[in-house]
Amino acid sequence: MSHGRIGVVLAVIGVTLGGVLGMVQREGGVAQPSPASVTPETIETTSIEVHVGGWVVSPGVVAIPEGSIVADAIAAAGGLRPGASGDSVNLAAPVMPGQQIIVPGPGDSGGAPTDVAGTGAGGRVAINRATASELETLPGVGPVLAARIVAHREQNGPFTEVEDLLQVSGIGESKLAAIRDLIVVP
User: Fold this and answer.
1) For residue 96, what pLDDT is reported?
2) Alpha helix locations (H) across 22-109?
3) Structural contact between residues 81 and 182, judged by C-beta atoms closer than 8 angstroms
4) What are the helix and strand counts (H, E) for the chain?
5) Cys-Cys with 77: which of 17, 35, 56, 113 at CB 3.0–4.6 Å?
6) Which structural domain range is residue 135 located in?
7) Which strand (E) or helix (H) includes residue 54?
8) Same domain membership, residue 179 and residue 87
9) Could you tell me which of 88, 162, 153 has the C-alpha nearest to residue 125?
């Protein structure tokens, strides 16, 4: 099976599961994946790739059927995280190939930046100040990886840019892409 077909099948499964397991949560109500995205005709369409970042469960590049809307892309990225500002994003807008969709979180839509110990502007995790527990709130970062990040920071000094995380054992390009929009280097 070609990579394109695998992507389409995975996107259809993801969007279908999103519809079956629940609706995309957002403040003030719920949004469902578009009905067109879960029809049998979707299997015949080509997929497009978009970047979904910010306050979603699994930020990164997702493959969705051509003709999808923003709600479908968010569903393919695992849905909204608690505290996401879903009303700041037009969930019904059509999605174009290569588009970037950023879902704001607390403080991202004009609020004052947060200044809790391990958080930075917009509630993002400040990797130079965060505790291991705070780092574990990032998708795909468990206790072992959080401890490695803290140990690397203590042994080598503060991170100067987000890409410095690639020096930590267990963080590769895909892991960094998944957390890039959720962290800051103050």
Assistant:
1) 83
2) 70-76
3) no
4) 5, 7
5) 56
6) 121-184
7) strand 47-54
8) no
9) 162
* CB of 105 closer than 8 Å to CB of 40: no
Number of domains in the chain: 2
- CA dihedral over 18, 19, 24, 25, signed as positive or negative: negative
Query: Rounded CA gap, 182 and 101, in Å?
Result: 14
Q: Please state, as a whole number, how many other Cβ atoms lie within 10 Å of the Cβ of residue 58.
A: 15
Provide the pLDDT confidence category of residue 186 given band limits of 50, 70 and 90: low
In the predicted structure, residue 95 carries a pLDDT above the cut 60: yes
What is the model's pTM?
A: 0.39
Q: Which two tokens stand for residue 110?
A: 């004009």
- Of 32, 29, 27, 69, which Cα lies nearest the Cα of 52? 69
pLDDT tens sequence across 123-166? 688 898 888 888 888 888 889 999 999 999 889 888 999 999 99
**What is the token pair recorded at 22?**
């629940």
Per-position b or e across 118-143, b if 16+ CB within 10 A of its CB? bbbebbbbbbbbbebebbbebbebee
Assess whether 125 and 99 both reside in one domain: no
Cβ neighbours for 15, distance < 8 A, ≥ 6 positions apart: 33, 37, 38, 42, 64, 65, 68, 72, 75, 76
Tell me the HSE value of 141 on the side-chain side, using a 13 A CA sphere: 32
